[in-house]
Amino acid sequence: MSIAVESQVMRVTYEAFSKFSNSLIRCRSFEEIATCFKINLKYLFNCYFFRVSFKRNSQYIHLMVSGINTNIKIQAAPEYFLVEEVLLEKKLPVYWTEPGEFGLPVAYALPEAEEPKLWGWLFNYASDRQITVTVLSGKSRSFTPKEVVILKMVTEALETKLLEICLFQELEDAFHIIQDRNKTINSIMEQQQDIIQLRTQEIAAKNAKLLEISVLNAHQVREPLSRMLGLISIFDYYEAEQLKSEIIPMLKRSSMDLDNALQEVVTKATEDLINLKA
Predict the structure, then answer these.
(1) What backbone torsions phi and psi does residue 89 show, to the nearest 5 degrees?
(2) Which whole number is the average pLDDT over 16-36?
(3) Backbone angles phi, psi at 138, to 5 degrees
(4) Domain of life, per the record (predicted)?
(5) Predicted confidence (pLDDT) per residue in 94-110, tens digit
(6) Is 49 exposed, middle or buried (0-12, 13-18, 19+ CB in 10 A)?
(7) Bigger pLDDT: 271 or 47?
């Protein structure tokens, strides 16, 4: 390939990457990422399949682009291909040319005439996340070392977008948790307010009843007591015989009335207080 042709190919490839990057930036979900790769990857490099396995903490994301089929899985446990396990273990790029070594699912097996080649890379972006990238190529869909530069650019852009969506989802989940807790707290507060209002009404009713009891008691006791005080106040105006024959009997009746009134008050107050406590 001449320098001019090679330069033209690279220019077209970088234009394709620019379109891919702009499309990826607009993605807001894992499903949109899969669609972005399905549409744009064929313009970046040629292969039978392109697979990315992204690990962040205990979350695993597998993106598979194969022909017109693209899928993305988000899991709590990984589903690594053999080549990915080797990459994670040895932490070195892989280039296999013997199909017997690939260990791929039957669906991705190529005829020997295609001279299949399996490429693999491991990228560590931080202590909590890493990406393995696997490419299956052949004579009809060849992948060359020169395309590794574009592949790395694609991988870096993808890692950034995956991390962004993961963080956004975590924030969204945290927001929903806070919302649920706020609803619970508000519900408890409303229940407490209802209980406080009910208790306040009960206390107000009891206070009103106590006031009624005190007013009633005062009235019942006051009348015979007033008579007694009145009789006592006129003692000085009567002779002893008159006091004995007229005033003292009246005083006795008033004292008995007072005693009866007090007994009635005590009995009724006791009953009312028992009812208030119930």
Answers:
(1) -80, -50
(2) 95
(3) -165, -170
(4) Bacteria
(5) 999 998 889 999 889 89
(6) buried
(7) 47
CA pair distance 220, 93, nearest whole angstrom = 105
What gap in Å lies between CA 168 and CA 28, rounded to an integer? 9
Given a contact cutoff of 8 angstroms between Cβ atoms, the answer to whether 27 and 33 are in contact is: yes
For residue 16, what are the contacts with CB-CB under 8 A and spacing of at least 6?
40, 43, 44
Count the Cβ atoms, other than its own, within 10 Å of residue 70. 20
What is the rounded CA–CA span in Å between residue 223 and residue 219? 7
What number does CATH give the domain 3-178?
3.30.450.40
State residue 202's pLDDT score: 80
**What is the H or E stretch that residue 69 is in?**
strand 69-75
Spatial separation of the C-alpha atoms in residues 269 and 261, rounded to whole Å:
12
DSSP-derived pairing of the beta strands 129-137 and 117-126: antiparallel
